[in-house]
Design brief:
single chain; 372 residues; alpha/beta; Aspartate Aminotransferase, domain 1; Aspartate Aminotransferase, domain 2; 7-stranded mixed beta sheet; 4-stranded antiparallel beta sheet; 41% helix
Length: 372
């Protein structure tokens, strides 16, 4: 059952007198599903598993406690935008806007680009919110399948750009749920094709702390490309803070549809605090990258497991029976994500978040027992 879904309303179907005021396409949708995780080793949502050291917890608590939460957010968000620009290495001529997580930024992009006949284009399998946000805004969504090894199908993508002239083309870098970085030459061909036919390209770098490459150095070369990041994978998933970067004139237009005060003073101060201690979060990311390599090695040594390359804090692995493996892991107290039903290319695939060393040990032992 989906959290917040129409079948979780506690009173049966929506009354007809009310249903006629709810868009039919919304009634036909499924809400974003969140698995109950209490009591499990939680390796299903690509969160950074590290907590702040106790000394930093106390320092952050003092700062948050001193905030004027009786006031609307003020100029402190300007300080956060400046800090994020320094952290990301924002090129000259570019600007940065804040969102309540990347999800809000994706919704704002759909809203800003909702012109008659507009289309959103993205490779599949990919992040589900690209399609969900497009459809909720009344935009048409076109998905282009990846190749069997989860690479961009260059010719299919270029053909789709020519045919549909999308208002927005999303390219995740690395991709979710496949975790791989796509070929830069293919990405540039798509970026150039979108420039020729009109529209925006949004490079989604949600997993940048774990990737070997970034698009940030190429951002200033294009007037139609936006780069989106989040602090969720950095280590602040509970804070909900995303940011969008790109040519100043383009960001200024998108920013017009942003709600006032969309980032709370608590979120803002927590993010500023984290950036002041980014060395601690860099240390955590290094541990997770090392654990990712160890997890991939363990998976390669297992019978009947096929792990795929990863540049994120997750590993996609194909097993003989994803449903049975998922349930077996759950029975052993380990919660992962069964993505096999999201797209035919993901048949019998599980997505494993990279956790703490002891969590990974438990997952490895459990999966080894299941597959043996």
């Amino acid at each position: 059952m989906s959290i917040g879904s129409s079948d979780d309303n506690g009173g049966g179907p929506l009354a007809p007198r009310l249903a006629r005021f709810i868009r039919q396409d919304v009634q036909n949708m499924h809400a974003y599903a969140i698995q109950p995780s209490d009591g499990f080793v939680k390796l299903d949502a690509m969160e950074n598993p590290h907590r702040l050291p106790e000394a930093l917890q106390a320092e952050l608590g003092r700062r948050l406690g001193a905030l004027a939460i009786n006031r609307y957010p003020g100029t402190r968000t300007d300080a956060l935008r400046a800090a994020l620009a320094r952290h990301a290495g924002l090129p000259a001529g570019c600007a940065l806007m804040l969102g309540n997580g990347s999800d809000e930024l994706i919704s704002l992009l759909s809203m800003a680009c909702d012109v008659p006949g507009a289309t959103v284009l993205a490779p599949l399998p990919g992040f589900v919110m690209y399609e969900m946000s497009a459809r909720l805004q009344g935009l048409r969504f076109v998905g282009v399948p990846l190749t069997a090894d989860f690479e961009l199908d260059a010719e299919a993508m270029l053909a789709a750009v020519r045919e549909h002239r999308p208002a927005i083309t999303y390219l995740a870098y690395p991709n979710n749920p496949t975790a791989n970085l796509w070929d830069d030459a293919v990405i540039e061909r798509i970026v150039d094709a979108v420039r020729e036919h009109g529209g925006l390209v949004v490079i989604d770098e949600a997993y940048q702390p774990f990737a070997s490459r970034s698009y940030i150095g190429r951002l200033a070369h294009h007037d139609h490309v936006l780069l989106m990041r989040t602090l969720s994978k950095f280590g602040l998933a509970g804070v909900r803070l995303g940011y969008l970067m790109g040519p100043a004139a383009l960001v200024a237009e998108i920013d017009k549809v942003r709600p006032p005060y969309n980032v709370s003073v608590l979120n803002c101060e927590a993010a500023l605090f984290a950036l002041e201690h980014e060395d601690e979060f860099a240390r955590q990311a290094a541990v997770l990258r090392a654990e990712r390599a160890r997890l991939q090695g363990a998976l390669r040594a297992m019978p009947h497991a096929k792990p795929f390359p990863s540049e994120a804090n997750m590993v996609l692995v194909r097993v003989p029976d994803a449903k049975a493996a998922f349930e077996g892991l759950k029975a052993r107290g380990v919660l992962v994500k069964n993505v096999s039903g999201l797209h035919p290319l993901l048949a019998n695939c599980l997505r494993l978040t990279v956790g703490l060393p002891e969590e990974n040990d438990q997952m490895i032992a459990a999966l080894k027992g299941i597959l043996s």
